[in-house]
Amino acid sequence: MNTILAHLNEGVAAVDGEGRIQSFNPAMERFLGTPAASAVGRKLQALSPGLSLDDVIQTGAKELEAIQKVGDRMVVVNRIPLVSESGTTGALLTLQDATAIQRVDRNLRSRSRTRLPGVRYSLEDLAGTSSAMAHLRELARRYAAVDSTVLIGGESGTGKEVLAQGMHDASPRRAFPFVAVNCAAFPETLLESELFGYEEGAFTGARRGGKAGLFESAHNGTLFLDEVGDMPPALQTRLLRVLQEKQVLPIGGLEAVPVNVRVIAATHRDLAQRVREGSFRQDLYYRLNILRIEVPPLRERAEDLPELSDLLYRRALERLGLEHREGLPEAARARLGGYHWPGNIRELENVTERIAVLVAGRPLEPADMLRELQAAVPELFGEDAGAMADAPVAADIPVQTPAQSGRQRRVSRSLAGVAHASEAEHIRRVLAECGGDRNAACHILGISPTTLWRRLRAA
């Protein structure tokens, strides 16, 4: 038994019913800085009052996983009574180095999976050779090396979550969890329980045993707060406190839980404007806006369009199980730069997949290919379609000054300037140009959302 105890890294001391030390292994010698020869026979209370076993001997109740400081080290302490038929005959004390437990936990996480679920992208997945993308990747690598909070700005569909995952993957926290939550996708009460967790019985329907929140789930890793600009005001206050105190108080809980989390937030909204409007807390804005990075929209890096479209087209073909001997049709490629891409990368991905489904692998003549593409992706042929729709109206005006011509073009884009037979087609084309934004389309067409819905339904 002494040989076994001597080989343990865990400090072990056993005392009799009077609290006198009977066994004292080498690990305990190192923890307390006292040789076993001078410790055996002495009362543990006198040797180290903070580690006394007297209460355990008197009550017979064990005390497990207590956290104490011994010297300059934090240790995990277990106090266990030794009970026989005649009652409590002594007690056992064990000490474990807290840093060793943390190290083991870290090793288990890193060996179980090299890239945790939820992390699919690296910074290299931010495709593009433009100067804007080169600068973005370089800035992201700098930000990944530190733990400061990052605020990512950019239009919808630009790849903000890809950037966040890439920074996590390039950071010292890459072996730990990356947890993402869309702050606009949950009702306020549900978002609160998701972020901060809850104790058993905190509310009706609470899971038995409670539930750890996403902050706890992301411990030692990264928490990505997408669409943080849409977070309800009440939760903004709680989020600010967590960022300041590095502690989370679960719903219904009495004790705060320390968390070590790097926060990356993203929004397509102008947070500074929302602060001025009073819908976003100014102090939270300053807490989030420590490191700022903006993802450029696709229209500002048009030189990346050929590379991006080919990449997304190949991925679409592979995903759909289609042959991919040829790249994106040239008729479509030539028109990519003439479109403003309001939906950014997400819209480009949708367009390339649509083309892949309709024309990939089909032996089409150039004229047939052009006709198929016009039907599949009318947004890329907006100018041609607009000219055809405007022609009958322009024919009614024999002579036009430049100013009149400009006014005529504006009229022809309103619904009143389009023949009844082509209303539905015109509405769909304007919707496509607006990236599906019905409010913007209604503004251009000069009609109400109700009228737009009724015309589309009747078509």
- Report helical residue fraction: 40-55%
Can you tell me the CATH superfamily of the largest domain?
P-loop containing nucleotide triphosphate hydrolases
- The average pLDDT is 81
Report Rg: 33 Å
Q: What ranges have pLDDT less than 50 throughout 5 or more consecutive residues?
A: 109-116, 383-421
Query: What is the fold-level CATH name, i.e. the topology of the largest domain?
Result: Rossmann fold
Structural class: alpha/beta
Order of strands across the widest beta sheet? 2-1-5-4-3
Beta-strand residue fraction: 15-25%
Mass-distribution shape: elongated
Describe this structure in words.
Helix 7 crosses helix 8, helix 16 packs across helix 17 and helix 18 packs across helix 19. The protein is 45% helix and 16% strand. The protein contains 22 helices and 14 strands. The strands form four sheets. A five-stranded antiparallel sheet has the order 2-1-5-4-3. It is an alpha/beta fold and 459 residues long. It is elongated, with a radius of gyration of 33 Å.
